[in-house]
Protein: Dihydroxyacetone kinase L subunit
Organism: Caballeronia insecticola
Amino acid sequence: MNGKTVMTCIDAAHASLKEHADEIASLDQAIGDGDHIINLLRGMDALVAMRAQIEAEAFAPALKLAATKVLSTVGGSSGPLFFSMLTGMAKAAPPDADDDGVPGFARAFAAGVDAVGQRGKTGTGSKTMMDVLIPVAQRFSALAEAGASRDDVLAELPRVAEEAMLATRDMLATKGRASFLGERSRGHIDPGARSSQLMIAAVCACLAHDAA
Ligand code: ADP
Ligand code: MG
């Protein structure tokens, strides 16, 4: 894992967000202010524009570089939250850039999710991206502890993310803009849960493909 891998993952996440842009826009129009996908794509475009810099770095510095760009370009609630995810992961990333073992990355992902929780001051059940990130981090850690292979992890995490994303539909929003709607927030998937799930699925597919 290095800056090139980070950029490959960014490209995969970017492609998936672009493909689902209209759907994410509709979700945020239903329970937010409609800007979530615009915010994210602005950040993705900025990351793509700094491809050479990111690719030249080792894994953790590449994540930190991307995080700083995300903070200054994404905006909204999700910009600082994705910044926290990336810096949290970078701080806990395996020190050896060549170590792409499951346990190290499970720890890094969990640290990223913890950082999002501290920034956004929420856990599961408030109908946010955390309803996807936390179950994925938990399953990732459990798989790592059970000695699961990289292939098994990359196949399993997208399933966990999808189930968790779908479960936000019936939740009552108690954090962020959607919470202003009260009961009317029910019946819509959270846009941040959907974008996070899509990015997780795209990154897992791309890493699985890379290893093949
Ligand atoms: P804004 O709500 O400021 O317009 P965005 O549209 O970019 O920001 O992002 C909205 C998404 O941010 C929501 O769908 C939700 O998943 C996520 N979100 C909002 N508040 C929080 C929070 N406190 N913790 C975690 N995620 C949150
Ligand atoms: Mg919004």
Q: What stands out?
A: Residues 28, 32-33, 35-36, 76, 177 surround magnesium ion (ligand 2) (CB under 6 Å). The CA atoms of residues 94 and 125 lie 30 Å apart.
